[in-house]
Design goal:
The complex is a heterodimer of chains A (about 400) and B (about 110). Chain A is an all-beta fold. Chain A has a domain of about 80 residues. Chain A has no helices and 51 strands. Chain A has a 51-stranded parallel sheet that branches. Chain B has a single domain, classed as Orthogonal Bundle (Arc Repressor Mutant, subunit A). Helix content of chain B is about 55%, strand content about 15%. Chain B has four helices and three strands; from the N terminus they run H-E-H-H-E-E-H. The longest helix of chain B has 26 residues. Classes of the chains: A mainly beta (about 400), B alpha+beta (about 110). At the A-B interface, loops of A face helix 1, helix 2 and helix 4 of B.
Chain lengths: ~400, ~110
């Protein structure tokens, strides 16, 4: 195929080129309507094309190509040690740019690979997108997989997979399989996702729904959230109702609304639930607060329990020197030594040595040494330790009044 | 003293050596064993000569591995490198959280 060559530093006017076109450095091409190159276009250095461009392959070597219009490349766009700026839409079978790709219109390609920065002012549709450095897109991003090494900030998404090294911000949408982000992830609108793994910090908009969430540092949701397993190294905060399979938080978890779990909540520090907690099991190293808590299995709290309406579980264990406000309802209730609690209800209640309770209503009661209670009502047995005191005296009844909750 | 910077955010932290190493590792990771020096330099925003020194150091520490492909060196992250990244991001988050907690600890506790 013949090659038309434009010498360095010249300005030419072109319309249709039958074969290949080669532009040396610092060339400006003025366009009659549209530049159509039947073969390949190669730019050796900086070049500017003053209108829409169509060619078979486009290669830029060690320079920046600027196109003042839509660019359609039938096969490959490649910029080696180069950048491409398109003031219009860009379509190519594959795009591979070393430095920077900047496009004001829509981008369509099967594969987009950019070493440095990808800056899109409109939408992007591709099967695979890979950006080494920074990726900015104002409009919607549709792709199967997206990988970025640095920072990514895009509009709504419809993806299978997202991997970002530094930080990623999306404006809601769907990521069907996985999200993996090293530093920080944020969705500014509701997001539906398969799984979310973030090394540092993650924030989701209200109404987001997804599978398992694993966040190293802090996790936040602006409102209601549905998840699978939620695992947070540091702090978790959910600004609405939350529902999921299980929760494991190293530090502190705050849920403004209700928290409904199929399984276990395990919190190293404290957990605060504004409304009700429902689940199978609860293990808290520090403090637990809720309006009400109903658990089908065990509840174990090391520090303090504060509920307005009470905590009900098959088995409740409070640690040494723990504190409880609001009724505790078993099953079995076991209060550690030197603890201070209010009302206890259960099939059996054990009050630890030197522990204090206000009211105990239970089938079987054991009061530890030097423990005290204002009122004890039991229906089966009572065992009283040395120096244990009951202000109103233990009272045996045929049948206990119904427990709260 | 007002510690907030522009837009009310805390002032940007100066990038330290560990930040640069993490950036390089994240960019290398994206290329799945085919990371060329020039590509990494554009992704990490580092000049090639400085990047080469960082790559050499990361290889010596066992965080990256290098091999020849078409006569040119290419890089890939090692499991140890991935471990470094996991720890780095988690630590960054904690540093930020502890900073926030220090500021919020001045507020009276809620009931």
């Amino acid at each position: 195929m013949s090659e038309q060559r434009v010498p360095r530093g010249s300005t030419v006017r072109l319309g249709a080129v039958a074969g290949d076109l080669r532009l040396e450095a610092k060339v400006r091409v003025e366009v009659d309507g549209r530049l159509v190159v039947a073969g390949d276009l190669r730019c050796d250095g900086d070049a500017e094309i003053g209108g829409p461009l169509e060619c078979r392959n486009l290669r830029v070597e060690d320079g920046e190509l600027t196109c003042q219009g839509d660019v359609t490349v039938q096969e490959e766009l490649e910029a080696h040690d180069g950048s491409v700026e398109v003031r219009g839409g860009l379509s190519a079978r594959s795009i591979d740019v070393d430095r920077r790709l900047s496009v004001t219109g829509a981008i369509r390609s099967r594969e987009v690979e950019v070493g440095g920065t990808l800056d899109g002012q409109s939408t992007l549709e591709a099967e695979r997108v890979s950006v080494g450095g920074r990726f900015q897109l104002v409009g919607k991003l549709t792709a199967r997989s997206v990988e970025t090494g640095g920072r990514m900030e895009v509009g709504a998404v419809e993806l299978d997979r997202l991997e970002a090294g530094g930080s990623a911000q999306v404006n809601g949408g769907t990521i069907r399989e996985s999200i993996e982000v090293g530093g920080r992830f944020r969705s500014t609108a509701p997001l539906t996702f398969g799984s979310l793994t973030v090394g540092g910090l993650a924030d989701l908009a209200a109404g987001s729904k997804g599978g398992d969430v694993e966040v190293g540092g802090r996790f936040g949701a602006d409102g209601d959230l549905t998840f699978g397993q939620l695992e947070v190294g540091g702090l978790g905060a959910i600004g609405g109702n939350a529902a999921g399979r299980a929760v494991e938080v190293g530090g502190r978890l705050e849920v403004q609304g209700a928290l409904r779990l199929e399984g276990r909540a395990e919190v190293g520090g404290s957990i605060v639930v504004g409304d009700a907690l429902e689940g199978a099991e609860l293990e808290v190293g520090g403090r637990f607060e809720a309006k009400r808590a109903i658990l089908s299995g065990d509840a174990e709290v090391g520090g303090a329990v504060a509920t307005l309406l009470g905590l009900k579980a098959a088995r409740i264990r409070l640690g040494r020197k723990s504190r409880a406000s609001g009724p505790l309802v078993g099953g079995e209730v076991e209060i550690g030594p030197k603890a201070r609690v209010e009302d206890l209800y259960g099939t059996s209640v054990r009050l630890g040595d030197q522990a204090e309770a206000r009211r105990i209503h239970a089938g079987s009661v054991r009061l530890g040494d030097a423990s005290s209670a204002e009122e004890v009502v039991y229906s089966v047995t009572i065992e009283v330790g040395a120096d244990a005191r009951v202000k109103a005296g233990p009272r045996k009844v045929e049948r206990l009044d119904p427990f709260p909750l | 003293m007002d510690r907030a910077g522009p837009n009310g955010r805390p002032p940007a932290r100066r990038r330290e050596a560990t930040d640069l190493y993490a950036t390089v590792l994240e960019v290398v990771k994206r290329y799945h064993g085919h990371a060329r020096v020039t590509r990494v330099s554009y992704g990490a925003g580092m000049p090639v000569d400085r990047l080469k020194r960082s790559l050499d150091r990361l290889v010596v520490l066992g965080l990256l591995r290098s091999e020849e492909q078409d006569g040119r060196p290419v890089y890939d992250i090692t499991p140890r490198g991935q471990e470094f990244l996991d720890t780095y991001w988690r630590m960054r988050a904690y540093v930020e959280l502890l900073g926030t907690d220090r500021e919020s600890s001045a507020r009276p506790p809620t009931a």
